[in-house]
Amino acid sequence: MVGRRTALLDNPSLTVRNWYGRNPVRIVLDCALSLPHSLRLFDGEVSTIVFTAEKHPDKKNVTYRTIDFTQDILPQIMEVLYQQKNTVPTGRGRESGCSNHSSMPNYGTKYILRNVRAS
After folding, report:
1. Is 34 exposed, middle or buried (0-12, 13-18, 19+ CB in 10 A)?
2. With contact defined as beta carbons under 8 Å apart, do 100 and 69 qualify?
3. pLDDT tens across 17-59, in order?
C-alpha cells in the first residue's frame, strides 16, 4: 500500500524481488488521480487497485475504486479488499493526496482481512 506522495517521490514497483512467489496486489491511494501514468505502479505488470475520489475506467491490471475520502478510508478499503479476499501489507505513511480525510492509523505491518467482518 502506498500513498500519492510516496508513489510520486519514490516511484516504487511494489513487487517481489530476490524472493520466489507471487507479487502482492498493489494498493495506491490517490484521491484526485494526480499521479502520472508513467509510474511503475501503472505498468500493468502486477494487479493494482487505485483508491480515489474520482471515477476512472479500469485499465489492464489496474482497477480504480471510488471511496469517500471525507470519511475514514480504512474501513472502505478493507471492505473492497475483503470482497476480493486480499491481504494488505501496509506502511506507516498517511498521505493519500487529500487533505480533508481522517488520517489512517498505523495497524502494524499487516492487516489480515479474516479479522474484518463483512457488513
Report:
1. exposed
2. yes
3. 888 888 889 999 999 999 999 999 999 999 999 999 999 999 9
